[in-house]
Write a structure and sequence with these properties.
Low-confidence stretches: 1-5, 144-150
Number of helices: 6
Largest sheet: 4 strands, antiparallel
Radius of gyration: 22 Å
Strand order of the largest sheet: 2-3-1-4
CATH topology of the largest domain: Alpha-Beta Plaits
Distance between the termini: 15 Å
Number of domains: 3
Number of strands: 6
CATH architecture of the largest domain: 2-Layer Sandwich
Mean pLDDT: 83
Oligomer: single chain
Structural class: alpha+beta
């Protein structure tokens, strides 16, 4: 069975519109892209089924939230244990494993200085060195329509990640992405047999 690339141009445009407004209707997306509503509905459903779209959410203006957002870094030799304990804390919203000396990073939100003191005590009980910084201002969000440029494409023939500019093969108004001339040739042969 042929493995489809992670995203074609239409899927990327649908994602771009949904990232700009998660409430965008199927009708609106169809109008913007010049597609039929059933086509857009089918593609959105496929993006959800494939796990590319994990959900639709509300983005809250952080300046309206009470309290402080924190960036907390840990120097943990027992990474799994530290992550397990951080996952239990309701104040912690995101956890990242990173390279470097500070190998666990989390984001947390606290209401006031008393809550900060309580959180610092919880961190101290982990028995690993840590640092906590208060976020003064959020400048850029992690996911934006522009970040679609860094999504990985996979070859529609062999399934390997495409490095550099992909080769393309178009059939019935759908673009297929291929990693090398050999995959392009073999994919083209298979598609001619199918059609």
């Amino acid at each position: 069975m042929l493995k489809l690339s992670l995203l074609d141009e239409v899927d990327q445009m649908i994602l771009k519109l949904l990232l700009e407004d998660a409430r965008a209707s199927i009708s609106y997306i169809a109008r913007e892209l010049g597609l039929s509503r059933p086509t857009v509905r089918r593609r959105v459903k496929r993006l959800i089924e494939r796990g590319i779209i994990k959900g639709f959410s509300v983005v809250i203006d952080e300046s309206l939230l009470k309290g402080f957002q924190l960036v907390c870094t840990f120097k943990a030799s027992n990474v799994d244990e530290v992550v397990g304990e951080l996952e239990k804390l309701s104040e912690v919203s995101e956890i990242y494993l990173t390279t470097g000396e500070r190998n666990v990073v989390c984001l947390a939100r606290i209401a006031d200085v008393k809550a900060l003191e309580a959180l610092l005590n919880k961190f101290s009980s982990l028995n690993v060195p840590f640092e906590v910084s208060i976020v003064l201002k959020s400048i850029k969000k992690p996911i934006s329509p522009e970040s679609l440029r860094i999504l990985k494409l996979k070859c529609d023939y062999c399934g390997k990640e495409i490095i550099g500019k992909p080769l393309t093969y178009t059939l019935h108004n759908r673009k297929y992405y291929l990693c090398c001339p050999i995959c392009l040739r073999e994919f083209s042969r298979k598609m001619k047999l199918v059609t």
